[in-house]
Design brief:
This protein has 402 residues and is α+β, with helices and mostly antiparallel strands. 47% of the residues lie in helices and 14% in strands.
């Protein structure tokens, strides 16, 4: 039997995240949508709030992702960092996706650090603000096509390459960079490196103008003989061609449920607003009458809500598996695929059903539709997630199913 009730400790943090979304994010949501690239100064207080909650054990910082916790149900199930972060991100994205991605010290790169860092590295990097730099001008979803290089020179790694679409790439204090230590050995040589913002040779080439999530800076980063300490590599520097690059890919098992959670959050916001609009228009939504016997708008709403619930359950399962040390690559991709598609479908349909009001800037519905699109793209596109799911279900390798 699945128990979807949040533990008391986790519920308190989730409620606090919801209050932040309602009282901080929503009031400034339109402001930073219209003022792209301006730093949301109102979020500066969020850094100390999140750190305080993490230290008190009430919420997860990025460094706790994937490492479980001592918060256990009576049956022994772990409700750890992944579940805490998921519940929090659902609430903050109910407020605003872009502002969620702009919260200081809660970057996606923190998940990479948590996934593969040693205990000593966690001591050094556990409380940094780390963005993630994977994509390059020559590739998008094929993470194995990394061309950025890392060469060991004495006690330092020297990185060269260009990274694009780096979320929080200008504001973060550190960047987790994927680079190859030996391009002749293929994907097995791809490693992740923690690059401090002030590392010599690292620069921001430009900030992107985007369809949505405008409150979050999205940067192009250049590394030209960029030098970092030797022990800033996450995991072993040895190239194991038999193992491949599963270590760096394990990052996605943590981050994909979080991105799915973002879609669940913004999807719920759109559903709540749509229901209010329909109710004000005199359209009653009933759970006791078959949808075919209800007004078309009510039937459409019920379909959207069921789609949202399916995505929510898949996402919760993927995060729970990560906390309980169960292999969840399949479930993480299923959640990401379902939730990403749901977020786009729900928000766009909400705009449609709300008519001219939904398309105008009098409501946040049109903004949520623009914000939701990225959630079906980054951290692996819809097509890539379906490909991963197919490979896992059919038991085929990447060479056998492309």
């Amino acid at each position: 039997m699945i128990n979807l009730e949040l533990p008391k400790k986790m519920k308190a943090a989730s409620n606090q995240a919801h209050q932040a979304a309602a009282q901080i994010f929503r009031p400034i949501s339109r402001k930073y949508d219209l003022a792209e690239h301006e730093r949301p100064v109102e979020l500066d207080t969020m850094a100390s709030l999140v750190e305080g909650l993490a230290d008190a054990g009430q919420a997860a910082s990025g460094a706790t992702l994937g490492r479980g916790s001592d918060t256990k149900a009576p049956e022994g199930n772990v409700n750890g960092g992944n579940m805490s972060s998921l519940m929090n991100v659902i609430e903050t994205c109910w407020g605003d996706v872009g502002l969620t991605l702009a919260i200081p010290y809660q970057g996606l790169g923190n998940s990479a650090i948590a996934s593969v860092a040693t205990d000593e590295q966690l001591e050094r990097f556990g409380k940094v603000w780390a963005s993630m730099a994977i994509t390059e001008p020559g590739f998008g979803s094929d993470s194995a096509a990394v061309t950025t290089t890392a060469v060991l020179d004495g006690d330092e790694w020297v990185l060269n390459g260009e990274k694009i679409f780096v979320t929080a790439g200008e504001r973060s204090t550190h960047i987790v960079v994927w680079a190859s230590v030996d391009r002749s050995k293929g994907r097995a040589a791809i490693k992740s490196f923690v690059v401090p913002r002030d590392a010599p040779g690292l620069s921001v080439a430009r900030l992107e103008h985007k369809l949505g999530i405008k409150a979050s800076d999205t940067a192009v980063l250049l590394m030209e003989d960029c030098r970092i300490p030797r022990d800033n590599i996450l995991g072993s520097p040895e190239v194991d061609t038999a193992k491949g690059f599963g270590g760096v890919m394990a990052t996605f098992d943590n981050t994909r449920p979080l991105v799915a959670g973002m879609a669940v959050g913004v999807g719920r916001a759109a559903l709540e607003e749509l229901r209010r609009i329909l109710t004000d228009a005199g359209i009653e939504i009933s759970y006791d009458i078959p949808a075919v016997n209800q007004p078309a708008a009510a039937a459409a709403y019920l379909e959207l809500e069921s789609d949202w619930e399916a995505a929510q359950l898949l996402t919760i399962r993927a995060a729970w598996m990560a906390d309980n040390k169960k292999p969840n690559s399949l479930e993480a991709s299923m959640a990401k695929a379902k939730a990403g598609r749901m977020g786009t479908a729900v928000t766009l349909k909400a705009v449609e059903l709300a008519g001219s009001f939904g398309y105008s800037e009098r409501s946040l519905l049109e903004k949520w539709a623009r914000d939701a699109k990225i959630l079906d793209i980054f951290e692996g596109t819809q097509q890539i997630q379906q490909l991963i799911v197919a490979r896992r279900v059919l038991g085929l390798s990447s060479a056998e199913l492309k």
